[in-house]
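Recall that a protein's primary structure is simply its ordered list of amino acids. Everything else, from secondary elements to tertiary packing, is in principle encoded there. The following example makes that idea concrete.
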Amino acid sequence: MVKRRSPAGKRVTRRGRKKSRIGWEWLLVPLAVFMVGRAFWEDLASSWPVLLGAVAVLAALLSAVFLVVRRMGAAYRREALRRAGLDRLNARQFEKLTAELLRRDDFGRVRVVGGAGDGGVDVRGAAPDGRGYAIQCKHYTRPVGPGAVRDFVGALQARPYRGHQGVFVTSHYLSAQAARTAREHGVIVIDRDRLADWLLGAYRLGPDRGAPPVWLARLRSGRQARERLRPPSSAQADELGLGGAAAE
Protein backbone atom coordinates (compact mmCIF):
# COMPACT_ATOMS: atom_id res chain seq x y z
CA MET A 1 0.00 0.00 0.00
CA VAL A 2 1.50 3.35 -1.15
CA LYS A 3 1.36 6.21 1.27
CA ARG A 4 0.41 9.58 -0.11
CA ARG A 5 2.25 12.64 1.00
CA SER A 6 0.15 15.43 2.33
CA PRO A 7 0.19 18.82 0.59
CA ALA A 8 1.75 20.26 3.72
CA GLY A 9 4.62 17.82 3.37
CA LYS A 10 5.19 18.84 -0.21
CA ARG A 11 5.32 22.51 0.79
CA VAL A 12 7.89 21.74 3.45
CA THR A 13 10.05 19.90 0.94
CA ARG A 14 9.89 22.76 -1.58
CA ARG A 15 10.81 25.34 1.04
CA GLY A 16 13.80 23.30 2.07
CA ARG A 17 14.99 23.06 -1.51
CA LYS A 18 14.49 26.81 -2.04
CA LYS A 19 16.52 27.62 1.05
CA SER A 20 19.35 25.41 -0.09
CA ARG A 21 19.45 27.15 -3.52
CA ILE A 22 19.73 30.63 -1.87
CA GLY A 23 22.55 29.42 0.35
CA TRP A 24 24.57 28.20 -2.65
CA GLU A 25 24.12 31.51 -4.45
CA TRP A 26 25.59 33.42 -1.50
CA LEU A 27 28.68 31.26 -1.68
CA LEU A 28 29.39 32.77 -5.09
CA VAL A 29 29.65 36.31 -3.69
CA PRO A 30 33.11 35.93 -2.06
CA LEU A 31 34.37 34.31 -5.23
CA ALA A 32 33.12 37.20 -7.35
CA VAL A 33 34.66 39.73 -4.96
CA PHE A 34 37.96 37.88 -5.09
CA MET A 35 37.97 37.83 -8.90
CA VAL A 36 37.12 41.52 -9.20
CA GLY A 37 39.70 42.49 -6.57
CA ARG A 38 42.37 40.43 -8.28
CA ALA A 39 41.64 42.06 -11.64
CA PHE A 40 41.72 45.51 -10.05
CA TRP A 41 45.03 44.79 -8.33
CA GLU A 42 46.58 43.57 -11.59
CA ASP A 43 45.46 46.73 -13.39
CA LEU A 44 46.77 48.87 -10.54
CA ALA A 45 50.12 47.09 -10.52
CA SER A 46 50.51 47.62 -14.25
CA SER A 47 49.59 51.32 -14.13
CA TRP A 48 51.25 52.44 -10.88
CA PRO A 49 53.77 54.73 -12.65
CA VAL A 50 50.88 56.69 -14.16
CA LEU A 51 49.13 56.95 -10.80
CA LEU A 52 52.33 58.03 -9.10
CA GLY A 53 52.86 60.73 -11.69
CA ALA A 54 49.28 61.98 -11.27
CA VAL A 55 49.72 62.17 -7.50
CA ALA A 56 52.98 64.10 -7.92
CA VAL A 57 51.35 66.60 -10.30
CA LEU A 58 48.42 67.07 -7.93
CA ALA A 59 50.75 67.64 -4.98
CA ALA A 60 52.73 70.21 -6.99
CA LEU A 61 49.54 72.06 -7.95
CA LEU A 62 48.32 72.15 -4.36
CA SER A 63 51.69 73.45 -3.17
CA ALA A 64 51.63 76.18 -5.82
CA VAL A 65 48.12 77.24 -4.83
CA PHE A 66 49.13 77.32 -1.17
CA LEU A 67 52.15 79.53 -1.90
CA VAL A 68 50.11 81.91 -4.07
CA VAL A 69 47.40 82.25 -1.42
CA ARG A 70 49.99 82.80 1.29
CA ARG A 71 51.75 85.51 -0.71
CA MET A 72 48.44 87.19 -1.47
CA GLY A 73 47.61 87.33 2.23
CA ALA A 74 51.06 88.69 3.10
CA ALA A 75 50.77 91.39 0.42
CA TYR A 76 47.33 92.47 1.66
CA ARG A 77 48.62 92.68 5.22
CA ARG A 78 51.62 94.79 4.27
CA GLU A 79 49.43 97.17 2.31
CA ALA A 80 46.94 97.51 5.16
CA LEU A 81 49.67 98.30 7.69
CA ARG A 82 51.37 100.74 5.33
CA ARG A 83 48.18 102.68 4.64
CA ALA A 84 47.37 102.79 8.33
CA GLY A 85 50.83 104.27 8.95
CA LEU A 86 51.30 101.77 11.78
CA ASP A 87 55.05 102.13 12.13
CA ARG A 88 54.79 105.95 12.38
CA LEU A 89 52.21 106.04 15.15
CA ASN A 90 53.12 106.87 18.70
CA ALA A 91 51.79 104.97 21.70
CA ARG A 92 48.74 107.20 22.17
CA GLN A 93 47.79 107.07 18.52
CA PHE A 94 48.11 103.29 18.58
CA GLU A 95 45.66 103.12 21.49
CA LYS A 96 43.18 105.34 19.63
CA LEU A 97 43.45 103.16 16.52
CA THR A 98 42.69 100.10 18.65
CA ALA A 99 39.66 101.86 20.14
CA GLU A 100 38.35 102.66 16.65
CA LEU A 101 38.67 99.03 15.60
CA LEU A 102 36.71 98.00 18.70
CA ARG A 103 33.91 100.39 17.78
CA ARG A 104 33.86 98.98 14.28
CA ASP A 105 33.28 95.54 15.82
CA ASP A 106 30.19 96.92 17.60
CA PHE A 107 31.81 97.28 21.01
CA GLY A 108 30.12 99.71 23.36
CA ARG A 109 31.44 101.99 26.11
CA VAL A 110 34.84 102.06 24.41
CA ARG A 111 37.25 104.29 26.28
CA VAL A 112 40.98 104.96 26.03
CA VAL A 113 42.33 104.90 29.59
CA GLY A 114 46.04 104.60 28.83
CA GLY A 115 48.42 106.93 30.60
CA ALA A 116 49.63 107.51 34.13
CA GLY A 117 47.64 105.46 36.61
CA ASP A 118 45.93 103.33 33.95
CA GLY A 119 46.47 100.20 36.05
CA GLY A 120 48.11 98.36 33.15
CA VAL A 121 45.09 98.67 30.82
CA ASP A 122 45.02 101.08 27.87
CA VAL A 123 41.57 100.57 26.33
CA ARG A 124 38.29 99.32 27.76
CA GLY A 125 35.08 98.29 26.06
CA ALA A 126 32.05 96.02 26.23
CA ALA A 127 31.45 93.34 23.61
CA PRO A 128 28.02 92.96 21.96
CA ASP A 129 27.21 90.22 24.48
CA GLY A 130 27.95 92.61 27.35
CA ARG A 131 31.23 91.14 28.54
CA GLY A 132 33.93 93.63 29.46
CA TYR A 133 37.22 93.65 27.56
CA ALA A 134 40.49 95.09 28.86
CA ILE A 135 43.13 95.80 26.23
CA GLN A 136 46.84 96.41 26.63
CA CYS A 137 48.48 98.16 23.65
CA LYS A 138 52.22 97.88 23.01
CA HIS A 139 53.58 99.83 20.06
CA TYR A 140 56.94 98.09 19.86
CA THR A 141 59.64 97.79 17.21
CA ARG A 142 60.95 94.63 18.83
CA PRO A 143 59.34 91.38 20.02
CA VAL A 144 57.35 91.57 23.23
CA GLY A 145 58.88 89.64 26.11
CA PRO A 146 57.08 87.57 28.74
CA GLY A 147 57.48 90.27 31.40
CA ALA A 148 55.05 92.61 29.66
CA VAL A 149 52.48 89.83 29.36
CA ARG A 150 52.88 88.85 33.01
CA ASP A 151 52.38 92.47 34.06
CA PHE A 152 49.17 92.61 32.04
CA VAL A 153 47.93 89.35 33.57
CA GLY A 154 48.55 90.87 36.99
CA ALA A 155 46.59 93.98 36.01
CA LEU A 156 43.63 91.80 35.05
CA GLN A 157 43.48 90.52 38.63
CA ALA A 158 42.87 94.03 39.96
CA ARG A 159 39.38 94.88 41.07
CA PRO A 160 38.39 97.19 38.15
CA TYR A 161 39.23 94.55 35.53
CA ARG A 162 38.40 91.32 37.30
CA GLY A 163 36.27 89.15 35.00
CA HIS A 164 37.25 91.11 31.88
CA GLN A 165 38.60 89.36 28.82
CA GLY A 166 42.22 90.36 28.40
CA VAL A 167 43.50 91.33 24.96
CA PHE A 168 47.14 92.09 24.19
CA VAL A 169 47.62 94.19 21.03
CA THR A 170 51.08 94.86 19.66
CA SER A 171 52.54 96.35 16.50
CA HIS A 172 55.23 93.65 16.53
CA TYR A 173 55.22 89.99 17.64
CA LEU A 174 55.45 88.09 20.89
CA SER A 175 58.38 85.93 21.83
CA ALA A 176 57.68 82.22 22.16
CA GLN A 177 57.69 82.43 25.96
CA ALA A 178 55.43 85.49 25.97
CA ALA A 179 52.96 83.78 23.63
CA ARG A 180 52.95 80.71 25.89
CA THR A 181 52.28 82.88 28.94
CA ALA A 182 49.35 84.54 27.16
CA ARG A 183 47.85 81.17 26.21
CA GLU A 184 48.18 79.85 29.75
CA HIS A 185 46.17 82.78 31.10
CA GLY A 186 43.57 82.95 28.34
CA VAL A 187 44.77 86.29 26.96
CA ILE A 188 43.84 87.00 23.34
CA VAL A 189 46.91 88.10 21.36
CA ILE A 190 46.66 90.43 18.37
CA ASP A 191 50.14 90.65 16.91
CA ARG A 192 51.25 92.41 13.74
CA ASP A 193 49.75 89.86 11.32
CA ARG A 194 46.43 89.61 13.14
CA LEU A 195 46.30 93.38 13.47
CA ALA A 196 46.58 93.63 9.68
CA ASP A 197 43.72 91.13 9.35
CA TRP A 198 41.74 93.24 11.83
CA LEU A 199 42.32 96.35 9.73
CA LEU A 200 41.16 94.47 6.64
CA GLY A 201 38.05 93.10 8.31
CA ALA A 202 39.33 89.53 8.10
CA TYR A 203 39.36 89.32 11.91
CA ARG A 204 36.79 90.38 14.49
CA LEU A 205 37.17 90.76 18.22
CA GLY A 206 34.31 89.58 20.38
CA PRO A 207 32.36 86.42 21.14
CA ASP A 208 32.17 85.57 17.43
CA ARG A 209 35.79 86.43 16.70
CA GLY A 210 37.39 84.87 13.71
CA ALA A 211 36.70 85.40 10.03
CA PRO A 212 37.55 83.94 6.62
CA PRO A 213 41.18 84.10 5.45
CA VAL A 214 42.41 87.56 4.60
CA TRP A 215 42.62 86.85 0.86
CA LEU A 216 39.04 85.55 0.80
CA ALA A 217 37.75 88.48 2.84
CA ARG A 218 39.61 90.80 0.46
CA LEU A 219 38.04 89.20 -2.63
CA ARG A 220 34.56 89.09 -1.10
CA SER A 221 34.65 92.66 0.08
CA GLY A 222 35.81 94.10 -3.22
CA ARG A 223 35.34 97.86 -3.11
CA GLN A 224 34.69 97.85 0.63
CA ALA A 225 38.08 96.25 1.24
CA ARG A 226 39.75 98.87 -0.94
CA GLU A 227 37.99 101.59 1.02
CA ARG A 228 39.30 100.12 4.26
CA LEU A 229 42.81 100.17 2.85
CA ARG A 230 42.63 103.87 2.06
CA PRO A 231 44.25 106.20 4.58
CA PRO A 232 41.82 108.22 6.69
CA SER A 233 40.86 111.66 5.54
CA SER A 234 42.41 114.68 7.22
CA ALA A 235 39.25 115.14 9.30
CA GLN A 236 39.32 111.52 10.44
CA ALA A 237 43.02 111.77 11.19
CA ASP A 238 42.48 114.84 13.32
CA GLU A 239 39.66 113.07 15.19
CA LEU A 240 41.93 110.12 15.95
CA GLY A 241 44.78 112.41 16.82
CA LEU A 242 46.92 110.86 14.12
CA GLY A 243 47.77 114.12 12.41
CA GLY A 244 49.75 113.38 9.30
CA ALA A 245 50.99 110.02 10.48
CA ALA A 246 48.23 107.95 8.93
CA ALA A 247 47.20 110.12 6.02
CA GLU A 248 49.32 110.15 2.88
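The two ends are 121 Å apart (CA to CA). The chain has ten helices and five strands.
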